[in-house]
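User: For documentation purposes, I need each entry recorded in a consistent format: the amino acid sequence on its own, followed directly by the corresponding structure tokens. There are two entries in this batch. Please keep commentary to a minimum and don't merge the entries.

Assistant: Recorded as requested. Entry 1:
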Amino acid sequence: MDLAATVVRTALNGVSYVSPRLAGRAAFRLFRTPRGRSRLRPDERPVMDRAVVGEIAVGGGRAVSYRWGTGERPVLLVHGWESRGSRFATLVSELLDLGLSPVAFDAPGHGDATGESMTILDLRDIVAALDADHGPFEMIVAHSVGVTATFLAVRESGVRTERIVAISGVPDFAYLVDGFCAGLGLRGRLNRELRGRVERELFPGEDDIWARFSVPRTEIPMEARTRMGGGPSVLVVHDEDDDMVDPAGSHALAAALGDRARLVLTHGLGHRRIIGDRQVAAHVRDFVISEASSDPSPRSAAG
């Protein structure tokens, strides 16, 4: 744990003994605020310079959108926490070569977007807004908490897609809260305070939000389903050496989806590098060009 995290842990835990509500409020603010903005990398710039740039009003800021191609056969790319749309640059090139039209974005508090904070509801609303402008999507590729938001958008906002690629997916919303508290070494009482504040401020009056955000238990409503019948086919990708999100969640998702899912396991990429990996991009390319029903059984491949 770095010095800044140690200071935060000590301060929050100390305040929680005197005023749990005050400590919970501070923890909630930190929970929604990225520690820093990912910067555009030199190798990503040639791809990003070719994008048509737009804006999407969401939450307390404006997301920045990027699109390539002709608009035919659109594919949406959904980044995760403390990431940005440019991290998909390698995949954007692959998709363009296949005649697809990628669409990406920077969420508030990320990349070149405005604002300082982001919630899973912001991600859901961005996905829904881009679906309204560019959908239905042939495929949605999501990473980390973007996977959670994508399944939520498909289920609750009627976002339409034929395929989903879930990379290093966060299995549920509770995992985010627990991981945040564990990472900072916060007391159990602060975890409970944070959960209560999430319930009151993000989802007032709603029942059991923790089950609602469970990706493996997501049921796709009929109106969001596509020509593929039982709902989108799903490619589940996770690195066995991911030290931020337990691969067990992706195994559970693939198992829950049964013959609609294909499971690809990589090694040595961790949580963040996986979305820019060329072999992962090749798996996604193969998923696009293959018939959804040609090989429905889950499989595992080394990366």
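Entry 2:
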Amino acid sequence: MDPALALVRTALNTTSHLAPRLAGRAAYELFQRPLRRSAVRPAERETHRQAAVERITVNGKEVVVYRWGDGARPVLLMHGWRSRASRFAPYVPRLRALGLSPVAFDAPGHGDSGGRATTVLEYRAVAGQLQDDYGGFEAIVAHSLGVAGAFLALREGVRAGRLVALAGVSEFAYLPGAFCAGLGLGPVIERDLRHRIEHELFAGTEDPWRRFDAAHRPEEVPLPILVAHDEGDDVVGISHARRLKAAYGDRLELLVTRGLGHRRIVAEPTVIDNAIGFLSAGQEVSAA
């Protein structure tokens, strides 16, 4: 474990014995924040540079939006936690070759966007604003937490023809436990963290654990779905993909990979080939 994270673990676990609410508050503040922002990687720079850049505002935070093409036939790209829009750079030329316009954004607290934190509700809000600007999406391609945001957006008014979900979080209630397990935090802190998420972060939201669950009410997301997930993903386990398959049945195609983990799966050429093939099939259906 990173020495800084080890220090956080020791401090919070020790504090939880003496002042559990104080430790829970500290964990809650950490849970909301990416802690560090990802930089544009060298292999992504040229594609990143070619994008038309605009800015929108969500909850008072400036969100940077990237567009390739004229905006006609848009495909929305939704990155994951501690990531950024440029991670989808390998998809851009492939989508443009299909006559599609990729549209991506850095979520609040990520990339070049403003703010220090974000929630799945802000992912949904950004998707909704971009739909207002560009119209319904030909497809959505999402990774990790972006997958939870995509399913929520699709259930709550965003329109798309197809969905590609990469290493996605399907069970929202999993996140507090995974966060605490990753830091080695004890059950006292996890219980307090769950309470704060439900009653502070999402105050006024009825049963956020179900509302943000990607497998909840599958009939409200009536579109073809491709899920790609690595069997050895140690951040979001393969069980999340299998939950989605059980919920969506024949409408969902499951691609299980090996040796890619949670992050490499995004830019893996064979995964991109499968995603583009899946999206191309959607174009053929639309043209028929």
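Summary note for entry 2:
Residues 269-287 form the longest helix (19 residues).
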